[in-house]
Write a structure and sequence with these properties.
The protein is α/β, with parallel strands linked by helices and about 400 residues long. The chain folds into two domains: about 270 residues, 3-Layer(aba) Sandwich (Rossmann fold); about 80 residues, 2-Layer Sandwich (formyl-coa transferase, domain 3). Strands 5-2-1-6-7-8 form a six-stranded parallel β-sheet, with helices on both faces. β1, α1 and β2 form a beta-alpha-beta unit. α1 crosses α8 and α8 crosses α9. The relative contact order is 0.13.
């Protein structure tokens, strides 16, 4: 599993589970880092629940009735990694991990604050073992503060940070985004921060602690809407009509119904040509719709006019007509349509890799580096697939490895 990306030579000890942490370390692995995923010795929790390797969110394996089949969540976040197993409640397991910590560049964990300390591999201990280590902690709400001990989970953070209040239509209830947006944002921020810490270490030799959390990541991603709320006298934005994508931007900016589906428009500066294409009266000279604030204040009426006209043709017909005029337009695709889009193939965003459970289609890295490209080199590992290999590389003798197995530390 040779790597030649920009992080080739960087070794990461990965204690993460679920999504925020594993997606971050997968990004580091895609960039060439040697990511060693540290998993429980038993793949099921003490109370009999499957860990995030196995689950119900899409089962993939040779026997769909087998309880040990891989979840889509695990497969989406763990490619390009090696897997070792250890019992971190066993003294010899902790001692083994300490030897690994002394040899790696990055330790990445996403347990609640205090868990790694109780296991004996918290930041201070790891810094004693390896003063130049970059130690990353991904949590729900940060290492301290009023919410530090609360369970952090994507949909909870969406609710707390206002994402739910911004989604859904004005006549309905708040709506979650639909994907694990806070987890993904937290992962990207974490990977970025670790890469920055590695640059600092390369310049100074100094390691440091990195903290990233779902809460801050989701709040920061409100971006212009957060800044607008904080500085505008307008106050709390209200959820918009079902057609509209933003509480602060006038139409056309959103999804609109056509004869056979929906279309996305972002064409506030193209009202005249839009009116011509739709074969309706020129809305650019109508005082109710001619400029930003009139359209904003009359957005429901404006959207109704658009949808009445759009109902006459199919999505594909409207897209073709509008693209001829270089309008900002796109079809609203299903996942099947999205993954069939020619741009997906052109950008190599779906890649098939061999695995012990058969060929797997995975989403490709969403960035391209001309000289040090990110790559998918291997499928997600099987449970403990590389334990012996990693320990041998770290200097453990065959006798030591056999003893760890005999003592059920690995």
């Amino acid at each position: 599993m040779e790597a030649a990306g920009p992080l080739a030579g960087v070794k990461v000890l990965d204690f993460t589970e679920r999504m925020q942490g594993p997606y971050a370390t997968q990004m580091l692995a895609d960039m060439g880092a040697d990511v060693i995923k540290v998993e429980r010795r038993e793949s099921f929790t003490p109370d009999g629940r499957p860990d995030d390797r196995y689950g119900e969110k899409g089962k993939y394996g040779s026997d769909p009735e087998d309880s040990k089949v891989y979840s889509a969540g695990f497969l989406a976040c763990n490619r390009n990694k090696r897997s070792i197993t250890v019992d971190l409640k066993h003294p010899k397991g902790v001692a083994m991990v300490e030897r690994l910590v002394a040899q790696v560049d990055v330790v990445y964990e996403n347990f609640r604050p205090g868990v790694m300390e109780r296991l004996g591999v918290g930041y201070e201990r790891c810094r004693e073992l390896n003063p130049s280590v970059v130690y990353a902690s991904a949590t729900g709400y940060g290492p301290d503060g009023p919410y530090a001990r609360k369970p952090g989970q994507d949909v909870l953070v969406e609710a707390l940070t206002g994402w739910g209040a911004l989604n859904g239509d004005s006549e309905g209830r708040p709506v979650p985004v639909g994907t694990a947006i806070a987890d993904t944002l937290g992962a990207m921020n974490g990977a970025f921060a670790v890469a920055a810490a590695l640059v600092h270490r390369a310049k100074t030799g100094e390691g440091q602690r990195v903290n990233v959390c779902l809460f801050d990541s989701a709040l920061a991603a409100l971006a212009e809407w957060g800044v607008h709320f904080l500085n505008s006298p307008a106050g709390e934005p209200h959820r918009t009509p079902a057609t509209h994508a933003s509480p602060y931007t006038p139409p056309p900016y959103g999804f609109y119904k056509t004869k056979d589906g929906h279309i996305a428009l972002s064409s506030g500066r193209q009202i005249k040509i839009l009116s011509e294409i739709l074969e309706i009266d020129d809305l650019s000279v109508d005082p109710d719709y001619s400029s930003y604030w009139p359209r904003f204040n009359n957005r429901e009426r404006f959207s109704a006019i658009l949808e009445e006209a759009l109902a006459r043709k199919t999505t594909a017909e409207w897209v073709a007509l509008m693209e001829k005029e270089d309008m900002f337009v796109a079809p609203v695709n299903s996942l099947e349509q999205a993954f069939s889009d020619p741009q997906v193939a052109h950008n190599n965003m779906v890649q098939e890799v061999p695995s012990p459970i058969g060929p797997l289609k995975l989403l490709g890295p969403p960035y391209v580096l001309s000289e040090t490209p990110a790559t998918i080199r291997s499928a997600p590992p099987t449970h403990g697939q590389h334990t012996d290999e990693v320990l041998q590389e770290a200097g453990f003798s065959e006798e030591e490895i056999a003893e760890l197995k005999s003592d059920k530390a690995i």
